[in-house]
Structures are given as structure tokens and as C-alpha cells.
Design goal:
This protein is mainly alpha-helical. Helix content is 55%, strand content 9%. The protein is built from 5 helices and 3 strands, in the order αααααβββ. The radius of gyration is 25 Å and the shape is elongated.
Length: 167
């Protein structure tokens, strides 16, 4: 094999490689998730959800809490039936965590914690939700969203002021 045919074969391989790379890049870019923007109606649904979450957490701050999940559940249902794919997905994830009446307090804390993690994700992605702040308690390793800057830990009745405002 002479040196011209080696160079020709090498150029042919490089040409095939470049074409393959371009085809791969095209498919990789075309598979990207479509980003659906949040409109003002979506922001209002999230605001209602956060407001009802605030009400639930305030009940958990009381002695012998007996929360009524009806309004919160209705806010979640609005997300599930919305036309926004992310809100729908988040709503479905929250729905599966809403405590039922038979749930004992300890297991409801776990469910609330999972709900709060989803709400924190929603707050990070849906615009105009700055009214609510994220708090974190290292003693129970849980986060929550509430208004204000004062720590009111809904998870630990014996340590209501345990936690910190997260930025």
C-alpha cells in the first residue's frame, strides 16, 4: 500500500467520522426536552398551593395538630389538571404524599417532608414566588417553605426554633 492510498483512506475515515459526529449532534440536540414557560395563571396556581401549604404547616405548629388537607388537595388537583407538563408532574408527585386521615403523626411528618422537597423545586423554577422562604433543620434533616424569616420548625414540637433560613 503506497503512502497516497494511506492518506486517502485516512481522509475518508475522517470524513465519515465528521459526518457521524454531525448526525449524532443533530439527534442529541433534537431530543432536548421542550421547555414550556410558566404564565401568570400557573404562577397563581403555585401561589395558592404555597398559601395552603403555609396553612397546613401552621397547624403542625400547634399542640396536637389535626390538619385539614382539603384546600391543599384542591390546589394540588389544580396542578394535576393544568396544561403545564411540569406542574402536572409535580402535582401528581405531591398527590401521592398527602397524608390520609388514618396517618399517624410521625408518618405524616415524612410525607410532609417529601411534599416540601417538591415545593422547593417548584419555587426554584416557577417565577415570582419570593414571598416564601426555604428553611432547613439539621437536627431532623428536613426542609420546609414558609413566609417570613423566623424559624418555625413544623417537624420538631420540642424544637420549634431549630433550623435556619436558607438563601
Amino acid at each position: 500500500m503506497n503512502s497516497n492510498s494511506k492518506v486517502g483512506k485516512k481522509n475518508q475515515i475522517m470524513k465519515v467520522f465528521r459526518i457521524s459526529l454531525l448526525v449524532f449532534a443533530f439527534f442529541a440536540l433534537s431530543c432536548k426536552e421542550v421547555v414550556v414557560p410558566f404564565d401568570s395563571n400557573h404562577e397563581k396556581m403555585v401561589e395558592s398551593l404555597f398559601s395552603n401549604n403555609q396553612s397546613i404547616l401552621e397547624v403542625y405548629l400547634q399542640e396536637n395538630p389535626k390538619p385539614d388537607w382539603k384546600d391543599f388537595s384542591n390546589s394540588v388537583l389544580a396542578l394535576v389538571t393544568s396544561n403545564h407538563p411540569k406542574l402536572k408532574s409535580w402535582g401528581e408527585a405531591i398527590q401521592s404524599q398527602i397524608p390520609n386521615k388514618e396517618t399517624d403523626l410521625d408518618s405524616s411528618y415524612e410525607k410532609i417532608s417529601k411534599i416540601q422537597e417538591i415545593l422547593i423545586q417548584i419555587k426554584a423554577e416557577v417565577p415570582n414566588q419570593s414571598k416564601y422562604n426555604r428553611f432547613y433543620c439539621p437536627m431532623v434533616d428536613k426542609s420546609w417553605l414558609m413566609t417570613g424569616k423566623e424559624v418555625k420548625n413544623p417537624y420538631a414540637p420540642e424544637m420549634r426554633d431549630c433550623g435556619e433560613l436558607m438563601q
